[in-house]
Amino acid sequence: MTIETGLGTVANYVDERTGAAAWMKKNLQKVFPDHWSFLLGEVALYSFVILLLSGTFLTFWFDPSQREVIYDGGYEPLAGLKMSAAYASTLHISFEVRGGLLMRQVHHWAALIFMSAIVAHLLRVFFTGAFRKPREGNWIIGIGLLTLGIVEGFLGYSLPDDLLSGTGIRIAEAIIQALPVVGSYLSYFAFGGAFPGESFIPRIYTVHVLLLPGAFLALITAHLMLVWYQKHTQYPGPGRTEKNVVGYPLMPTYMAKAGGFFFIVFGVIAFLSAVASINPIWLYGPYTPGQISAGSQPDWYMGWLDGLVRMAPPIETHALGHTISWNILIPGLIIPGILFTGMALYPFIESWITGDKREHHLLDRPRNAPNRTALGAMSLTFMLVCLINGGNDIIATHFSLTINQIMWFTRFGVLILPPIAFVVTKRLCLSLQRADRELVLHGRETGTLLRLPHGEFVEVHEPISPEKAYLLTSHEQAPPLELPAVDGHGVKRVGVLRNKLRSRMSVANAEAVTKVSVNELKEIEHH
Amino acid sequence: MKRISRYRRHKAAGPFLLIAALLAIGTTFSVASATTTAQTTTVDRTTQIEEGRQIFLKGCSSCHGLNAEGGQIAPSLIGVGAASVDFQVGTGRMPMADMNAQAMRKAPLYDAKETAALAAYVATLAPGPEIPNDSQLNYERDGNTAQGGELFRNNCAMCHNFAGQGGALTQGKYAPTLMGVDPKYIYEALITGPQSMPVFSDKTITPAEKMSIIKWIKAAEKEPNLGGASLGRVGPVTEGLLGWVLGLGILIGVAVWLAMKAR
Amino acid sequence: MSHEIEAIKDPGLPAHVHRKADTDPAAANRAERQVAILFGISALGTVLLIVSYIFVPQDKFIFIPIMGNQNAHQLGLGLGMAISLFFIGIGAIHWAKTLMPDTEVVAQRHEFRSPDSDRKEFVDTVKQGATASGLGRRSLIKKSLGAALGLSALSPLLLLRDLGPLPKKEFEKTTWKSGTYLVTDPGNRRIKASDLEVGAVAQVLPEIEDPEHRKLSDIGKDAVLLIRLRPQDFNLTPAKFDMTHDGIIAFSKICSHMGCAVALYEQQTKHLLCPCHQSTFDVTRGAKVIFGPAARPLPQLDITVDGEGYLVAREPFSEPVGPSFWERNSQ
């Protein structure tokens, strides 16, 4: 029996029971546009698979218990010391289990790559406007995945119960405890009593290994199904319209490339795990609340939160026998809550400003949406300033600065730098639009000088190709919303203030360098 | 003279003269600012103390006062003991070159004999911590690495970091790295509390416990990095940086190659 | 405005450019060989992984330039795995790029919105079904259903009650009582006032009956830092000064901000720094916060000495230690 006949038998067997041939045929021909920036989401997806695989490996040896044991393993600097079974089992994985340390490192590096890829993918989706109708739901799922990823990572590196991550749990407990009215109760329920107790590690193990991975699987499946069904967006260009998808079919090209890329992601993570040490918990020591290390930070995706908490003013209110720690609640819960809610709702905010209710399948080049791009740059600046403050002690010792200087710089910087980033980015986008316009009208500067018969020197310009000209001018430049205070019948419109805000934002959003039209090109030709 | 004039307009003349002038100024400066180190061949103690006093007057009194009573810019040295002097001068922290926040470890100015003389002199001012003897430094025999680690994490890691790599204090001060520090200096730092460091008396951390700490520090120094390059042993900051730069960097590079059209 | 001005026309998909391997069989064979070599390198990586796992001892170290001494077993495993995976990927992608069809295909998008007839039928089906269920008409069913579902949702919450005890007044209690001796951490030895020189610090815990089995939850509230200054260095109220002993002052080591251990004592400035969020406390003024996000000074422990000079707590802490919480009443 040849491969073909063998496969044919299997296919027949399956089709007779499920009718799979029809939708398999359709989906194997599905077209996927090809651009490197579309692979960022794939990096996140493959990292997730690698996390599942490496994580499962680790669960075969990890003991999620805070029961006290005396260390009797092979690492001499901890010999005879008291520690939790969780910490001791992690040491065992690192030192005695062959491949154990490698898999621990694969798991942790994969987590860092997972979060980096999510953020990079989010930035790509944001700056190209891929979240617009019909993809608002997928955007919200994505923000959900980002949030869950942050929590999952935090719980994951807290499982070994070492000094560094235990400090992180202490801080998390302080946030819980600070919640008004219910804080002390929630803390006692979460920890089974006073901090650190003996229940927390086993409980977060269940969350980390069962509940959140289950949530991820469900959300990622929904995320991918939506991409599959709604078809992927594509960059504008010749031959590409809102009504088509230009690319390569799933079988064989896309399968080979995407499948191959999985091995690339796994390979790069394995390479990092081979050459760069990560989370050497045996150096940190087991957790006890009386100890701390200089330079204690969470992993980078929580570093911005740490930075926010560090720069908070020391505000607490005491009234009627009760305390509210604004210095914890504002940076730890309220500001992140506002940021993430704003992020999740952004597609709706933007469509409210632009009044645009149409479907979009062609992406925006970031320069052609200057307001949105500037907003993104502003948020990124905010996050970066917070992240810098999260590492202020490491930065201070390595660059001969003081932690006090960095704290004050970021306290003011977090308010001043984002608006500056907004203005600079917006102007940059408009300049790039202007440059595009010049390119279309006058062509590419070749650097060759020509002396004309009458003596004048001119630079030879080469006209750009029609494909490029189309690419630079195919974007839409919608006018700002018209929201008159009085409608056609002379009746005053309700919600005037809201509409005024809306139209102001709409005007700002519509600011652009007018793109080149055919008429203008014709004029140039006769020049 | 004529031969030199011939090269007056040579294109290398300018640079040559510049380098010659710089060398001349530099050499003159080094010679002028070099402090002479006195040659000593003392054997008996009184001469050693006197010699120490002479060095003190020449090199230390301008800040610490003629009688080591201290002043506006430097503390009193009365009662600091020989151990303090041995530590500060032996690690090159004193004399302090730059009056900024932190006295930095640097190449010592005085050799072992001069340092010993200085220490002997300061010890006479008032009783203070003595230079540890060999029995207090036999950490290999008398120390316990694991207990030393516990002691280190309880008393030292909050300033010097979990692996003794050092850490930030306020206003630009820092706890320095403990890697590559002579065990004698570690002991002396513990008992004298130099600059920002507090004192860890022998009653609260016994000499045996101090030896355990030193043994752990030396073990940490020698310990190879098991999982790969160490990234500084400072925790998640460098790990996150590497993940973004190298990890995502390589992946984006491959992605760009993947989407490029083949020739 | 832009629809009045004529936009530049779409020239359509650019003409397909053939790759070398499309037209030249030798180039195609070369590409095939290249892919095979890449897969071959992957196989070598797997061999390295297997050899390292089985044959390289776990305690063997080799020197690598730049990286220093590396564990050969770990490096072999890791690089073996990395090479084995990475080159499968490179091989597959190179194969796709050079040999698989790369003519761009155009597929049409379809409108998502269902035809109006379908939508109407959907609405009708739902309406019919809703009416058939009788829910709208039969308000007794509606109300009782709501009550039953709502009540049943409470039981999972109730079932979680035993996750933990109620905090009651636990946040305000520590092991420290009048007469509790201060002991070193680690070591559990009593401390005399004379053991501390000016400028010295000590990490202390309360003396308990079974020091070998101290609970971490107790350490998390009991940890105390002893610092000795000269009595004249203090700038305290008489009541707070009274809680010190001959220049020795005791503070809770648990940060009043978010609970990290505060033990970075700067001897010259007499400041305490918490490394988590850089709150700075002035010891001379009773651990008053002078920088950073902490809002309250560290609680001070009232200490004195017994007849033999050993340090004891005179009173328990007069306020809860550690981070703030809703019920915290002291300032």
Oligomeric state of the chains in view? heterotrimer
Broad shape of chain A: globular
CATH top level of the largest domain in chain B? Mainly Alpha
Counting helices, strands and paired strands, the structural category of chain B is: mainly alpha
* Total number of strands of chain A: 8
Q: Could you tell me how far the N terminus lies from the C terminus of chain A, measured between alpha carbons in angstroms?
A: 73 Å
Notes on the structure:
The complex is a heterotrimer of chains A (527), B (263) and C (331). Chain A is mainly alpha-helical and 527 residues long. Chain A is built from 19 helices and 8 strands. Among the domains of chain A are: 259 residues, Cytochrome Bc1 Complex, Chain C; 102 residues, no CATH class. In chain A, the strands form 4 sheets. In chain A, strands 1-4 form a two-stranded antiparallel sheet. By secondary structure, chain C is an alpha+beta fold. Chain C is 34% helix and 16% strand. In chain C, the strands form 4 sheets. Chain C has a 5-stranded antiparallel β-sheet with strand order 4-5-6-7-12. A 4-stranded antiparallel β-sheet of chain C has the order 8-9-10-11, with no helix packed on it. Chain C has a two-stranded antiparallel sheet with strand order 1-2. In chain C, a hairpin with a 5-residue loop joins strand 13 and strand 14. In chain C, helix 2 packs antiparallel against helix 3. The model of chain C has no long low-confidence stretch (mean pLDDT 92). The interface between A and C is large, with 122 and 95 residues. Strand 4 of chain A pairs antiparallel with strand 3 of chain C.
